[in-house]
Each structure stands twice: as C-alpha cells, then as structure tokens.
Design goal:
Blueprint: E1 12-16, E2 30-34, E3 46-47, E4 64-71, E5 76-87, E6 93-96, E7 100-105, E8 109-116, E9 126-133, E10 138-139, E11 147-151, E12 161-163, E13 173-176, E14 182-183, E15 193-199, E16 204-209
Parallel strand pairs: 12-16
Antiparallel strand pairs: 1-2, 3-4, 4-8, 5-6, 5-7, 5-9, 9-10, 9-11, 13-14, 13-15, 15-16
Length: 210
C-alpha cells in the first residue's frame, strides 16, 4: 500500500509514522529532517554514471527498466526525477515513465530505478531515454550521461531468429515487419530479410526469409 499526503511543520528533526483512527502507530517510525524552504535546492542534482538498461538493443516495451546514478553535490535535493522517452530525433516526446521521488543530502549518491511499459512503442524502432528533473522540467546534467538510445524488440521480447517454415511451427500466423506493419504476402513470396511472425497461439518470433 502506498500513502501520500502533505503536512506543514517547522524546521527540525521528527519521527514520521502511520497511525490508525485511534492514534496508534501501525508502522515503524522513520526519522525525518525538515529544512527551511530556502535550504531546498531542487536543481542541485547531477549524474555520476551513464543511464543504463538491461538490453538497450532488444528492449521489451512492456517491461522497460532504466537505472540512473545521481548525486547531490551540496545542501539538499528533495524532489522528483523521471524518464522522458523521445523519438530518435530527440525533439518529440513519445512517452514517459512514472516519477520517482528522492531526497539526498549533500555529497550523497544513489541509484534510481525507473520501470514501466511503453504502450505506443514500435517494434524495431529506436528511441532516446533521457533523465529529467521533474521539479524544474530540465535535463539532469551532464546530458551525455543521462541520455540513452534504445531499440524496442518484439512485443514479447523476441530475440531469437528462426528460419521461416510455413506449416511446421504454427498452422495460422500473421507476418509483420520489424516496424510492426502487417504484410499480406505469404512468407515464400516476401523479399529477403527479417520479419516478425505471430502464431494463432499468440507466440511471436523473428523469422529470416532467404
């Protein structure tokens, strides 16, 4: 269960706990430091390593996962980060992943993991993932290390390539280009290349047409 809320308190050291309607604590108290508003520096966050993902050349659009290594150089960063996903040209936003809230004291580093689905991702298409400071709607710097190109694999995370052989693998199937466009010709009449084959059972695999 995730609980969210806002409260107003003076700067100082506190313990934060969830209570029931009788005022009884039902969670482990967490130490919290509240700073004066002027001490918060929402833009005071930087990258310490290259934005990464498990397989940038065959990313499963249903299970994207990016890891960002960030550091607060001084004072305090308290805010949200998020991943914007751009078209390959880097100018048009195609999607984004949910925000992650972090709080870092000066000199501290942490890894932030973003995960989620890109429903509009196209198989075989290349995109750019970029780490963004959601508080200022600006790129986390240095931008070279917070931008990662990646390619969407087949919707089922298809990686292996099989030789097309009608009738043996599945009796009913559809053929698609790597860009996700359905083709009407039979596999023995298609130009040479790599395609996606979706069987009636739902199984999807890459096939090579010789």
């Amino acid at each position: 269960m995730e609980l969210t809320g806002k409260l107003t308190a003076s700067a100082g050291e506190y313990f934060l706990s969830v209570t029931d309607n009788l005022g009884k604590s039902i969670s482990t108290p967490q130490a919290v430091t509240i700073f004066e508003t002027g001490d918060l520096k929402y833009d005071d966050i930087e990258s310490t390593a290259q934005l990464s993902m498990p397989d940038a050349e065959n990313a499963d659009k249903e299970n994207l996962e990016f890891t960002a290594a960030v550091k607060c150089p001084e004072a305090l960063f308290s805010g949200a980060l998020m991943i914007y996903i751009y078209e390959e040209d880097g100018t048009t936003v195609a999607s984004c992943l949910d925000k992650k809230f972090i709080q870092l004291e000066g000199g501290r580093e942490t890894n932030v993991v973003f995960s989620g689905a890109m429903e509009n991702g196209t198989a075989g298409k290349r995109y750019l993932a970029t780490l963004v400071n959601a508080e200022t709607n600006s790129y986390v710097t240095p931008k070279d290390s917070t931008t990662l190109p990646f390619t969407i694999a087949g919707g089922s995370g298809v990686n292996d390539i099989a030789v097309a052989d009608e009738g043996k693998e599945c009796s009913r199937f559809d053929i698609f280009t790597l860009q996700g466009l359905k083709v009407t010709a039979k596999s023995d009449r298609l130009p040479r290349g790599i395609y996606l084959r979706r069987c009636g059972s739902g199984k999807v695999e890459k096939i090579m047409i010789h």
